[in-house]
Amino acid sequence: MGSRDPFEISFCSELFMHIKLPLPEGVDLKNLLEVLRSFSWGASDILKAYARGEQPPFGYSKSFSVQDADKGPVTSADLAVNNWLINGFRSEFPAVDWLVITEESISQKIYTDSELTSKWVWMIDPLDGTKDFIQGTGDYAMHIGLLYEGTPILGLVLIPEMDELWIGGIGLGSWCENQKGARREVFFGSRNELHEMILISSRNHRDNNFERLIEGINLGARKIKGSVGCKVVSILKGEADFYVSLSGETAPKDWDMAAPQAVLISAGGFFTHVDETALVYKTHNFAQKGCLIASNGKHHKYLCQELKNRLVEIKPELLM
């Protein structure tokens, strides 16, 4: 059960720095990042305005409403940011050979097999943590993740209430920027022993199976937070060490996981199923079912093994 050596984490990040980020023909990385920054901070201004009951920018209505949908609540803020991002991609990249999928777009369109086999697919969540947004906890985020042949290769996780934009990609590493452009690096926690490690888990998505899964694991502490993006950012800031998702039919979706995974992996962390296999994207229902574990890398293999053994006893059908 040896802990993962910090040098190994650093070395893993260095390896990523020597791999070129694959992009469609005609797309310049520097320009792409500048455009994505503009998209993100525009979304931040929209979300914060709705959160404060103020007039949103860019002509969006101040009226705030909440609609009940099969996948959960949808607010005016979700729809406004969705519109902002979709229009942004159409305007800035009208001829680029990639597919843009957002959480809100799937209620309006069924994607074909040929579309889902596109090499480059953006998975976007305009508002991750809608329940927390409504509750006013501040634990909400926006995700922009790029898949290449089904693997997350570039991600942006925006935390508006913290003035944080986390960016990570293959060949780039990972870092955080504020709206003024000031940058700071990832800091994985210094806790090396399992009994010191901190689990970050969901505020709104926990059940008895999850509690049974976690009990008996000798941990230092547990924290709760909304939004997958906020939870993964807690790992990137050293506030927590790992995150566990356990779900069946109400599983998180590709747009919940793609951007956070890209940022975490590019920093040297891990994001896998409990059996250590990779997450699979672009299935027809976009669901990320089963037991998923994101970590800073320390004890990842051991945690997977321990939780897998417990899951066999609790709910084996959630093994993936």
Chart the SSEs and their pairings.
Layout: H1 6-17, H2 29-52, E1 66-69, E2 72-75, H3 76-92, E3 99-102, H4 113-116, E4 120-128, H5 130-135, E5 141-148, E6 151-159, E7 164-169, E8 173-177, E9 183-185, E10 198-202, H6 208-214, E11 221-225, H7 228-236, E12 242-247, H8 254-266, E13 270-273, E14 290-295, H9 300-314
Parallel strand pairs: 3-4, 10-11, 10-12
Antiparallel strand pairs: 1-2, 4-5, 5-6, 6-7, 7-8, 8-9, 12-14, 13-14
Write up this protein.
With 320 residues, this protein is of the alpha+beta class. It folds into two domains: 29-185, Fructose-1,6-Bisphosphatase, subunit A, domain 1 (Fructose-1,6-Bisphosphatase, Chain A, domain 1), CATH 3.30.540.10; 187-318, D-Maltodextrin-Binding Protein, domain 2 (3-Layer(aba) Sandwich). The chain contains nine helices and 14 strands. The chain has helices spanning 6-17, 29-52, 76-92, 113-116, 130-135, 208-214, 228-236, 254-266, 300-314, and strands spanning 66-69, 72-75, 99-102, 120-128, 141-148, 151-159, 164-169, 173-177, 183-185, 198-202, 221-225, 242-247, 270-273, 290-295. The strands form three sheets. Strands 3-4-5-6-7-8-9 form a seven-stranded mixed sheet, sandwiched between helices. A five-stranded mixed sheet has the order 11-10-12-14-13, sandwiched between helices. Strand 6 (151-159) and strand 7 form a beta hairpin. Helix 2 runs antiparallel to helix 3 (76-92), helix 6 (208-214) packs across helix 9 (300-314) and helix 7 (228-236) packs parallel to helix 8. The longest helix has 24 residues, at 29-52. Mean pLDDT is 90; it is low at 1-16.
